[in-house]
Known about the structure:
Elements (H helix, E strand, L loop, with lengths): L1 H10 L4 E7 L4 E5 L6 H9 L3 E6 L5 E7 L1 H8 L10 E7 L2 E7 L6 H10 L13 E2 L17 E4 L5 E4 L3 H4 L5 H8 L8
Antiparallel strand pairs: 1-2, 1-3, 3-7, 4-6, 5-6, 8-9
Amino acid sequence: MKKLLWKLRRFFRNSCRMAVLDMVAGKRWAIASTSRNIPYLKAENVRDRHILLQQVEQDTYLMADDITPELLQRHHKLPNGTWKPGRMVVETSPGNFQVWIHAHRPLSLEEKRYWLKILKSDPGAGPCNRWGRCPGFRNRKKNIVIHPAIIPWQSSSGSTGNRQPTFHKYLSIYSDIQQAASENKTNNSEP
Length: 191
């Protein structure tokens, strides 16, 4: 979990925050994204609360929500099967993804709306102050059916399988995106 948190901070250039969301109470509270808070976040997640993540530097990041495997392949991978630079992909439920995109320049809200439409992101998920699911924690939505002993998993190769439940494997972060983000070779025609 500490390594995952390190990767998240690296992707967001030490500029991210976390929160706990209690859907029943309708409350969200911020938590510092430090390793000392991992036990607290795990405990809250077990209590059916969502663990969320948000970038602080809003102008250079964009989060596309409810992305299917087909859209993921079409919009976020290169022809050779590797990830496009500046992407962090989080599987939020079986076959459903959030894609964080680190742009090489600031994007206006109008540009973000344009790209979210092109990327076929959830139309109800606007670009302003977006929170996404934090990798490493379970999606606690009631409509996500998970067998108590087995957690669905989709590997970066696209094959599906089952793994034993652990907090750090349900929402998967694809680590090769970290390398792509650091290379900063984003095409000028894309966010």
